[in-house]
Amino acid sequence: MKGIGARIGLVCGLLVLIFTGFAWRLIDLQVSQHSYFAHEAAEKHCIRLPIPAQRGRILDRNGEELAVNIPVRTVYADGTRIHDAKAVATVASPFLKMSEPDLQERLSTKRPYVVIRKGVSEEDAQDMIRAMDKAGLHGLYLQEATVRSYPNAEMLCHVLGYVDCTGHGADGIEKTMDEELTGHDGFRLIEHDRKGREIVIYRGQEQLPENGSDIRLSIDMGLQALVEKEIDTTYKDLHPAAVTAVLADPNTGEILAMACRPNYDPNKFNEAKPEQMRNRSITDMYEPGSVFKIVVTSAAYNEGIVNENTRIFCENGHFSYGGKIIKDHHGFGDLSVPDILMKSSNIGAAKIALRMPDAMYYDYVRRFGFGQRSGIQLPGEISGMVNPPHRWDMLTKTRMAYGQSVAVTPIQMIMAMSTVANGGKLMKPRLVLNKGEGNAVQEAVPVGQVVSAKSSNFIASSLLKVVSSEGTAPLARIDGFKVAGKTGTAQKISPNGGYLANRYIVSFAGFFPSEHPNLAAIVIVDDAPLGDSANYGGLVAAPVFSRIGSKAARYLDMEPETGTVAQSAQSTSVSLNSRVP
Amino acid sequence: MNGNRRRTTNLIEVNFLARWLGVMFLLGLTGLFFVYIKNQQHAVGNQSRMIESAIAELEARNEALNARITALTSRGALQRRVDEGFIHLEPIRDTAIARITPALPAEADGVLRTASRDPESRLTVGVPQRILSR
């Protein structure tokens, strides 16, 4: 009996030891190393599935879509699941638009993730998967993706920019507004089974994506289209190096249209050359020529240095100053300030500048926004070049008066002209009206009062004469409207110093209607091969301005000003061969 | 012997047995029901996953079609169609445009309108529009 009892006790003891071991191991697995094994298990079965955010659209001021997303699929292969590469290639190649041998070669892999083709359309991708299922084949899978599309192709390309292969803006509004447009990806924690299918009932934490905001621009595509068409015609007809045009609301600083030639298609940005991709409105500086006379005349009038009755002797076309001769295109005697603008007298403008102290003149040039970035919401803007007085030589001041020895960008020039149009306020140019805040529109931002309303009105009324049969830009007239503006004709600067012979940058900047200006525009034609006698702002750029203005007025249904129809009819009799700057 | 045999006879306690069998049956039934519910959950989960992917596919197709419509109705596309002659635009002459100005309220021109009883719209509605020709 004792022997049996001992044996029973031994067996029971062994069982106790065994089960104690099991219990200890159980506690070890479930308690001591719980987090480690839970993590290991989760790594095998749980994945964090990203839910991509949609990039915001870019719209014009009326809600027209300028940049949209097209859903596409990235097709990838899991080599571990492909058993018959040839059969898969036969079924899938028509949908992937690849040759069967090429596809078969790429499918002959054991790697679990091989991208076969990006940018496959949704329809083709789904049709391919159905065909694969029908044939009982596996190994090709789809990933969600989007491509950015610009429905208007080249139109407004320099403003919109483009998105690079990482999905982020690389130029234009796409770049400056990238943060607002991008949004934030969401995610979902899921568990999957042995075949990789999601087990929905074990779906874990989920965070929905925050889509990017839609950006509403101040651009009006109706106006943009007609500006594009006009500068396109100019570019094709005159064969210049470049054409630039900007249309703005002088009262708010809103940019209504902005276009340059040459241009490119942002849908095929990788085919574009660097010179096609430059937004010359903000990245190119040029000597503005006579358009800059509005600065010296406004400043002098505002300071009381000249007034309505001031008459300046213009030396009959030859003025010797600082060892150099300043010339006018015609010899003039005494001219009033409006006449200096109307006749575009370099000598008159230089003499007005000489009446002003250097520091005061420089201050006004800066207050008009030159020599500093305008702050437009586009990348790559340059500040132009305005030297401070301590760097001036004896001639700098006189040259600056008629737009030499100073370099400006088109956007600076149109904002300066808008200052004259709107009662003396320099406005910050605005391209973005709304960054996804519903219907709210950001307020116009005045940079400052440059000259008094009286001074700006005086200059504006003087500029009306420029667009008359006696002025330099009769071809800038617009039927039914009184137009104020100024021509500019500047020789191109040689890279080796000095100026290039017979090569000009001609421009016209103006605004209308004269009473309550709604539109300001600048047209710049760079280096049109027209020869010395025909390459003037009044002959080349002014007609483009006129055509753009006429169509814009019709498009905006602007009410004609009274007493202007008969005046505009005279413009047809103006000779194209008259030499006007 | 007979007495001993009678003493070792065990009676089956039907009530006791039935109670435990009932408990076991209920436990088994609960287990089966649990498995059934779990399977149902998986089935419904799979259905909802399929519906989700179908909705996602539809949304993607819808977006693709919207983008296509946008491209086909873009200004560039329409301009191409105009250039091809598919769409013809007839220019409107300036002389054919009538400009209708908004009617003036009574406070502005001093004319009392009687056509409408609504005091708000009475001032503007029903007034012959002034037509100015260019």
Rg of chain B, Å, rounded: 44 Å
Helix count from the secondary structure assignment of chain A: 20
Elements of chain B, N to C (H/E): HHHEHE
| Biggest pleated sheet of chain A | 6 strands, mixed
How would you state the average pLDDT of chain B, rounded?
76
Question: What key attributes describe this structure?
Answer:
heterodimer, A: about 575 residues, alpha+beta, Beta-lactamase, 6-stranded mixed beta sheet, 5-stranded antiparallel beta sheet, 20 helices, disordered C terminus, B: about 130 residues, mainly alpha, 2 domains, two-stranded antiparallel ribbon, 4 helices, 2 strands, about 60% helix, about 5% strand
Short description:
The complex is a heterodimer of chains A (581) and B (134). Chain A has 581 residues and is α+β, with helices and mostly antiparallel strands.
Architecture blueprint of SSEs:
The complex is a heterodimer of chains A (581) and B (134).
Chain A: H1 2-32, H2 34-45, E1 46-51, E2 58-59, E3 65-77, H3 85-96, H4 100-107, E4 114-121, H5 122-134, E5 140-149, H6 157-160, H7 172-176, H8 178-182, E6 186-191, E7 206-207, E8 215-217, H9 221-238, E9 242-248, E10 255-261, H10 274-277, H11 280-283, H12 293-302, E11 311-313, E12 318-321, E13 324-327, E14 334-336, H13 337-343, H14 346-354, H15 358-367, H16 396-401, H17 410-421, E15 425-427, E16 432-435, E17 446-449, H18 453-466, E18 484-493, E19 499-512, E20 519-526, H19 537-555, H20 565-569
Parallel strand pairs in A: 2-8
Antiparallel strand pairs in A: 1-6, 2-3, 3-4, 3-5, 6-7, 8-16, 9-10, 9-20, 11-14, 12-13, 15-17, 18-19, 19-20
Helix pairs in contact in A: 3-4, 3-5, 9-19, 12-14, 12-15, 12-18, 13-18
Chain B: H1 2-7, H2 14-72, H3 75-84, E1 98-100, H4 106-109, E2 131-133
